[in-house]
Amino acid sequence: MSEAPQTPPRLDEDARQAQKRRNWWLALALFAFVILVGVTTVVRLADSELGPDGGFYWSNPPQSDSRPMPDLPEGDESQPAEDGGDQ
Amino acid sequence: MEHMKQMSHVDTADMTQDAPRYATASDYVQLMKPRIMMLVVFTGLAGLVSAVGVTGVSVNPLMAAIATLAIALGSGAAGAINMWYDADIDAIMSRTSTRPIPSGAVPRDEAIALGLVMSGVSVLLMWLASNAVAAALLALSIAYYGWFYTMLLKRRTPQNIVIGGAAGAFPPVIGWAVVTGSAPLDAWLLFAIIFFWTPPHFWALSLLAHGEYKKANVPMLPVTHGAKVTRNQIMAYTLLLAPLALAPVLTGLGGLVYGISAALLGVVFVKLAVDVWRSDAGAVPVQPEGAKEAKRLFAFSILYLFLLFAALIIEHGFGAYISVPGL
């Protein structure tokens, strides 16, 4: 009961050439788009200050009410850390 | 107007010529209405350059170039959507019958696909290169032309190009928003100039081609209300436009170069509109003298807008701004 598979219409030489040209233009357009997006991203990232109040991708709002981190207690630097260290 | 709506969905296979014609790159460029695109890009660039000059905000030149490209792509997208929808009436009018869809070079499906994809690409690029406000304005202008004007207004009301004229007026506002992320009064003044320029520009053309519009059942003003009413309307809008074009001088957007240009160009525009108003342009049968006056006004209207916005670019882009004494 399955339908016979449809064969695509045969294209003459002119039609095939036209199709090929269109495909090349399409590929070129897609490539140009990718390049444009890439260049735009790079330039915007380079221009951005990457600070808390500016920046293109790093746009966290400034935290005016944030308190400075407390100083860590001084430890004995001659002893290796118990659970630290570079693994 | 029901019959007109029905017409809009006829199969374009009926329009194609006997011999198959395969699309070239040029056909796809034509689909994007390149001449309109040039004016759109130019006015958008004028808005961008003016914003830099007025506000002092700097913009990365590469980002400005990509934003301008986005405006061009957006204009092309709207043009493709317009040609997709209007393929049936384009086939009827001899002026437009050689366009890519009625000539059979580009299938309608490809035209709408191109229009929609380019719409998305242009808005995305604009957003990436500038900001959300400019991208939103670009999206709005594409929808305004491609949907509101083309699908709702054009075949329904003789005020189609008055209301629809706003679509072509957005570019300087978009250009301004690229720089500042906002659209202040000065940007909307430029919008208003193009808005009031559109009716005399387009109606001058429709006085020449009203027979074609009638054949295609498009309710242009000369078809629905006659040539005399159209000539009166051209005169009225020109009298509004000429002083309005001087308004940027009052806000400081336009300097001495712009002010003198706007004044002189305005005088010529009014003179040519008076010539059309006094002529029998649009009369049936066609009167050569009247047609000549309408043609002259149409040609000058393009030059008018080009020179007006060129004056802004010269002032703000090339350091030629001299403030008008006493203001």
Notes on the protein architecture:
The complex is a heterodimer of chains A (87) and B (327). Chain A has a domain at 15-48. Chain A is built from 1 helix and no strands. Chain A is 40% helix and 0% strand. Chain B is mostly helical. Chain B has 2 domains: 27-183, Tetracycline Repressor, domain 2, CATH 1.10.357; 185-327, Four Helix Bundle (Hemerythrin (Met), subunit A). Chain B has helices spanning 2-7, 25-31, 34-55, 61-85, 87-92, 108-129, 132-153, 160-180, 185-208, 210-215, 221-224, 226-244, 247-251, 256-278, 288-317. The radius of gyration of chain B is 20 Å and the shape is flat. The interface between A and B is medium-sized, with 16 and 16 residues.
Number of helices of chain B: 15
Mean pLDDT of chain A: 72
Name of the CATH first level of the largest domain in chain B: Mainly Alpha
The pair of chains with the biggest contact is: A-B, 16 and 16 residues
SS content category of chain A? mainly alpha
Task: Report Rg of chain B.
Answer: 20 Å
Query: How does CATH name the architecture of the largest domain in chain B?
Result: Orthogonal Bundle
Number of E-type strands of chain A: 0
| Assembly level | heterodimer
Report the major sheet of chain B. Answer: none
Any idea what the radius of gyration of chain A is? 30 Å
Distance between the termini of chain A: 65 Å
**Spatial shape of chain B:** flat
User: Structural class, from secondary structure content of chain B?
Assistant: mainly alpha
Q: Unreliable segments of chain B (pLDDT under 50, ≥5 consecutive)?
A: 1-14
Instruction: Give the SSE order of chain B as H and E letters.
Output: HHHHHHHHHHHHHHH
N- to C-terminal distance of chain B: 51 Å
Order of helices and strands of chain A: H
Strand content of chain B: under 5%
Look at the structure and name the CATH superfamily of the largest domain in chain B: UbiA prenyltransferase
Beta-strand segment tally of chain B: 0
